Amino acid sequence: MNFLLYGMEKRYLTLTIVTLLAVLCAIGWILNPAWYLEFGALLALAVMAVVVGVHDMIQTRHAILRNYPLIGHMRFLMEMIRPELRQYFFEADTDGRPFPRERRAIVYQRAKGQLDKRPFGTHADIYSAGYEWMLHSIMPAPVVHEPFRVMIGGPTCTQPYNSSIFNISAMSYGALSANAIRALNKGAKMGNFAHDTGEGSVSPYHREGGGDLIWEIGSGYFGCRNADGSFSPENFAKTAADPQIRMIEIKLSQGAKPGHGGVLPGPKVTAEIAEIRGVAQGVDCVSPASHSAFSTPMGLIQFVEQLRKLSHGKPVGFKLCIGHRTEFLAIIKAMLESKITPDFIVVDGKEGGTGAAPAEFMDNLGMPMRDGLAFVHAALVGAGLRDRVKIGCAGKIITGFDMARAFALGADWCNAARGFMFAVGCIQAQACHTGHCPTGVATQDKMRQRAIVVGDKATRVANFQRETINSLAELLAAAGLTSPRDLKPHHILRRGGAGKVVSLANQFVAVHDGDLLNGKVPEPWKRPWATARAEAF
Prior knowledge:
Layout: H1 2-7, H2 13-31, H3 36-58, H4 63-67, H5 73-81, H6 86-89, H7 101-111, E1 132-134, E2 149-152, E3 161-164, E4 166-168, H8 178-191, E5 194-196, H9 204-208, E6 212-217, H10 233-240, E7 245-251, E8 262-264, H11 271-277, E9 285-287, H12 297-310, E10 316-320, H13 325-338, E11 344-348, H14 359-364, H15 369-382, E12 390-394, H16 400-408, E13 413-416, H17 418-424, H18 446-449, H19 454-478, E14 492-495, E15 501-503, H20 526-531
Helix pairs in contact: 2-3, 7-17, 7-19, 8-19, 12-13, 13-15, 16-19, 17-19
């Protein structure tokens, strides 16, 4: 079915054939009176099909039908006849494994404003290892309906950002289409939350909707680079002055492929992308595996301070997937020695990532989000820096429970890419790298991306974000809590091997305020902490 949806280069072939059939039937109806009834019946059917096809092309609710008139109905027919088939035809995850259809259905229902309730109990195998649940209270608290916000900005930040607790994670223009970026940013504006640009820099399509932006700067320094690919303070300061840019995020690594660079082939570097990224048109656009502006933990912290000054006090932080614990603890030591702290750290889990990556990197490299998040939170607490640095996280966060679990492990806010792509219309056809995305989300083909009606999809983006936070608020109330900050590791339980149940508090190293400074280093951290140096990774 995916082949039928995105493998056909002639997407309108079916409608064209039906139209020609209608014309031939009309001619036969006129020229062959003996076959009057037969040609008349065929003509009626063909005209009805043409009308349906034309309606598909001009309607604004279904991206598949706009790109695949008539034939697109086969997808919805199969869903109606046999919903179970969706797992095999339409719900493969980006690494080839099925993405649970219930989770994707939640996004679609919330984005479309549909009821997200269901009968007949849980679909989860609640007695299998890995099942998790949240403790509730006999005396629930009132549901808090006001939006949850977090103020991001440390002691030296003069333009702190009052952020939503649920924002759009990094996805670049070039990877996503112009209309997808437009819809995401307009939705962010409607819902008053932030939109991360991805390392492809700030495009005109990020600016059209007026939504708050988090400008991600990767190792290629796109949008703030010199001709040789090095960092340009002048170009950075010019772009960072845009009031729509609320925070700056240095990308050290990303969950899907930590420690791996990237290349946008020269033929794909159009004049528009070349101008946006500050690179040469038609030449391979390289994102190195590491940064050239710094090479040590101290250098990273000084780079953070440099960007904060160049942006006139906007919040500056960095994003990474945790690898060697020694390296992150070295960054902690650099903060302590320099008295300079980032305003925020975003922990990207290896399970995340909406872009393409080598299979081994996706499956076997990098630390999962929960482990990385718990580690970063504990390290900042142990160094006495937690009150100066906010923590964001990303990694397959879809539901209110996903957010609750992240808050329990120390997050101040959550980012999501996959969920917002679903809200825009992604069906995970896994054709991102081909340019043949059936819904127009991950393609630069202007005819394909016309399937995305920006206003309609922007509303869905805002709906999904709002309803997910509402779901979190209801979970908090059921647990007798009123704020995400009240969540602690002991609120979440997990079934382990042999049916043993433990809380998240039992799974991760417990560190108290200042322990690393007072010599109370946890046993698993003693060697990494002892070998960590601010002068070298």
